[in-house]
Amino acid sequence: MMMNQAEMMARHGLKEWMNETNKVMKELSYSIQKISAGELVEDEQIVAYIESLQNEKGSWNSVGQEHLFNSKTEELPYYAFDAYIRGIVRWMNELGMMTMMCCDGHGERHAYVEMDGFLNDRQMHVLNLAIPSDSAVRIRFRKNRRRHTVLFDYSQTERKALLDIAEMLFKMSNDERYIQMLETERFKHRLLDWLEVPGESGREQKVRRRLTSSLRKLTDEQQIDEAGNLLATVRHGEGPTILLSAHMDTVERIKRGRVIHQEGTILTSSEGILGADDRAGIASVLEILERLPMTHFTGTIKVAFTVEEEIGLCGARGINQEFIRDVDAAIVLDRRGTRDIVTGCRGMFDFCEKSYGELFERAGRLVGMDDWKATRNGGSSDAKIFAEFGIPSVNLSIGYRDEHTDFEEVDYCATFETVVLVETVLSHRLIQQNS
């Protein structure tokens, strides 16, 4: 996608001149826009022009003195900052991440931004999102007793990649929806990775090994029960115990050498099943666990990745009873479509009280997804087994269609919206602990 002039300026920490309030920044922006005559110019030209003005105007040369300014109450002297870090610092401040000092590393060492205090989990998540997936820059966070320092590692020839990060942060500060777009795109790559992992019913070993590796980073405890289910626990303070579940098996083996095609937000397979039933559920559970520290949830999350769901719900039936003994509610991620909250099997067997399904509808409304609706007319799934064990359960749509066929597809955007729904339920603490 071609860059526009606002984005070109933003890479260097500048707004278009009519949007600048600081006199020096307004003059600087106006000069650059006048020189460019409305055309896009090379980054190196802008850097050289600003550096020539810094050398010409002694009053601009306050490099290293930014710590004398209070970023919470005063506008920082962005015009004096190092060329390749200026944009990053400005848009970090615009996003509420207040800074004290910065350096772009001058092509000889890492760049850094010293914060005025500590970053929270959400802010660190946003900064990680701002690093393009193909970037030569790697981000690190260093913490002492008073503040965080954000470090940007790059090779000597890759300093310009810092400008790409500035552009991403500008887009985030300019439109909050851009953050969710980036999150959705990154989630797509997680889903694509899992769609390549084979594991039909009874042969889930490879899936389980890979999941075990992921869960070691995201949970406190992991175990494999006698049925072969992979179970995990993460404790997050006092509160309810909630089970998240998806199944590890596919109905048949994923074809070797197949190609996954994308049209819009829809993924399909060139041959055989896609495997989104239930790789979409697996990817979603991992995403929810990764995002958990950014929520207000307090309580315990238990995870059950079950085996042999496709041949009779065998894994769920044989799950370790001690593991689920204290579970207050279950959320299964294995329903076709995009907006179903399944609370029963074919209208004849209820998985939960009506109120449990309704709280997911409420969560949908909280995030502008009013069309999530509870239905008792679902099929058989692990949710039915958990309900038979006395656990209030729902099975949520996870974005796939035409499962078990060569025409299977998944809308990865819809899958990610299910992640957002569950995250909202957790963050708003809508599920209560049973007495």
UniProtKB/TrEMBL annotation:
<dbReference type="GO" id="GO:0046872">
    <property type="term" value="F:metal ion binding"/>
</dbReference>
<dbReference type="Pfam" id="PF04389">
    <property type="entry name" value="Peptidase_M28"/>
</dbReference>
<keyword id="KW-0479">Metal-binding</keyword>
<keyword id="KW-0378">Hydrolase</keyword>
<protein>
    <recommendedName>
        <fullName>Peptidase M28 domain-containing protein</fullName>
    </recommendedName>
</protein>
<dbReference type="InterPro" id="IPR007484">
    <property type="entry name" value="Peptidase_M28"/>
</dbReference>
<dbReference type="InterPro" id="IPR001261">
    <property type="entry name" value="ArgE/DapE_CS"/>
</dbReference>
<feature type="domain" description="Peptidase M28">
    <location>
        <begin position="229"/>
        <end position="411"/>
    </location>
</feature>
